[in-house]
Structure formats: C-alpha cells, structure tokens
Amino acid sequence: MNQLANTAWVEEAWKKALEKTVVNSERIGAEFPHASQGGKYVLEGANWWTAGFWPGMLWQFYAESGEEGLKNVAERCEERLDEVLDGYLRLDHDLGFMWTLTSVANYKLTGREASRTRALKAANYLSARFNLKGGYIRAWNPWREGENNSGVAIIDCCMNTSLLYWASAETGDPRYRHIADAHMDTVLAHFIRPDGSVYHIVNFDPDTGEVKEKLGGQGYAPESAWSRGAAWAIYGLTLAFHHTGKREYLHAAQRVAHFFLTRLPEDHVPNWDFRAPDEIRDIRDTSAGSCAASGLLLMAQLVEASESHVYRDGALKIMESLYRNYGTWDQPDEQGLLLHGTSNYPENRNIDVPLIYGDFFYVEALARLKEAGPFYWE
User: Partner of 150 for a Cys bridge, out of 107, 119, 129, 206, CB 3.0 to 4.6 A?
Assistant: First the structure.
C-alpha cells in the first residue's frame, strides 16, 4: 500500500464511519435519506436523485467488511427502485447516480443477473435522453405545469455518463459510449471556463443545438464558481478519461482540479461557491470536498508519476480535515457522517447540514485511500 495512504487516521476514519453506518442501517433501513435535519436524515421518495447514495455507501462498506446486514439493506433499496425504473415517468438524467450505485454495484460484487438487467434498462433510458442537435443529455423533465426544460443540461451529468460507459463495456455495443463521449465533448465546449471554473447549467435550443444561456443554478450567479459543480467536473471528466483514454478529458479535469485546489480555504474544505460575496462565501460544502477528493485520488492514479502527488496530496488534506474537523464521531444521535454540507443555497434548502452524497463520497474516498475497491463508476 502507498505509504501516504497507510496512516493511522485513515483506518480510524474508516472504522468510525463503518460503526456509525451499521447503527444507521438499523435506524434507516431500506429507505432513501437525503439531508439530515436535527440529527435525523429526512427520507425522500425512491424517485429522488439521491436514492442511490445510501445503498451505494452500504455496498462500499460491504465490499471491505463483509457485513451481511449492509448487503441486505442495499439489495432491498435496489428492489424498491424497481417502482421508479418500471414506472418510467419519474426518470431523469440521474439514472446514472441511482443505478450505478445500486445495480451496477450489486452486479460487480455478486454477479446477480437481475441487477445487470436493471442497470442495462437504466442505461437505455439514459441514452434516450440524448439530444442529437446539441450533443447533450437532457437533465430534467417538466415537473411543473408549463415548464420547458428540454434544452437544459447540467454539469452533474458528468457522473451519470459512467453508466453508459459501463453498458458499452458490458454489452459490446458502442452506441452507449458514443452518447457518453458526445455529452462529455459538450461539457468541454460549453461548461469548463478557461480558468478551470465551471458553469452549472447550460440551456440549449433543443431544435438547433445553439446555446441560449448559461445559468447559476445552485451556485451564487451565472459567472460564479459553485464548488460542487467543480467537484462533479473533476471526478466526471477523470472517469471519462479512465473509460476512453481521451487526454482532452484528463486535461480539462486537471484544469478544474488546479482551480479547485488553489482556492481552498486554510482548512482545505471548500466554500460552497468560490466567488460568492464575502459575507456568505465562508459557508462550507463538505460534499464538494469529499466528491472532489475521490475524483482527485482517481486522477492521481491516471496521470504521470511526476504529477501524481499534486492530486493525491490535495485529496489527503481535504480528507484528513473532513475527518478531524467535520465528522460526527462524538455525536451518536447525529445520523450524518459529515457536518456543514450545502445542498442549494440560492433556494435556501439544506444549508449547513449533513448530506447523504457527502457521506457517500467521503466513504468512497476512504476506500480509495485503503485500496479497498471496487469502485462502481469504473
């Protein structure tokens, strides 16, 4: 094992997170937590975009620990998602988040054919969201009467394309990969700024493919620098390079990583938006930190040896700070693992609370440090 990873705090962090998750598995069961309020995770419906992160975290721990109770809860969550997959109407681009961390995970670990079938169905539905004119995967459906978001794509979808790369590798059918590549090429063209900061939302004309506008979304403003958007880009573009070998994806991921790492505050945990006004800039987002850390650790494995330490050291600093300064290890009544996540500041939703995706990526990054895969995006 790499000596940087073989540190006492990594094993301590893993042990404490595992112990807390075992307790939580009895509290939460086969439900779909999102944000913790007053120490208890608020549960969402099976159609909510975060539904894969809790079972994904259980699979990550099960792979290393063999805790059968965690496996059982994860499989029950996956089965509950059938109502969404077969119901179809509530599906959007987050099919990747949801079925990569449930069905792909189960299939990779157990070889379960029913899980393979679920994941392939999800990949087909995700492929069907591709707009040929704009070269993008449509993000959302019109959830409200009169809403038209047929031209909307968001940076988060960098992560969802891993489901398509998996489907191509699994079936030998290149069409999934072609769609994923086309979407990631659009990310390079329209989402990543020259300085490495990232747009959250790009709205295309769905009939011509022309860019109509770029929006702030969950960041402060259209031209600000939402940190979780940068984290999605770091990780998603690195995964795209992993799957394709296209160096332009890696170079873009590195550009975003350099922007991200050089703007971290003293404790190495990101502000929610690096360009927010001074009076609100210090609000943290631990979920952006943990997601970026897992992506940086993968990046460190894929770049030249002379560059690797930049990304690995950056990830280690983030992760050690999350463990020592943001963990809930001395708060047994708090279900979340990491404090101070920021979900959606502009809409005043779930600010300064634990977030299930922050917890998932924290555990995944610890598993990377322990070399305790597999990792389901890959």
Answer: 206
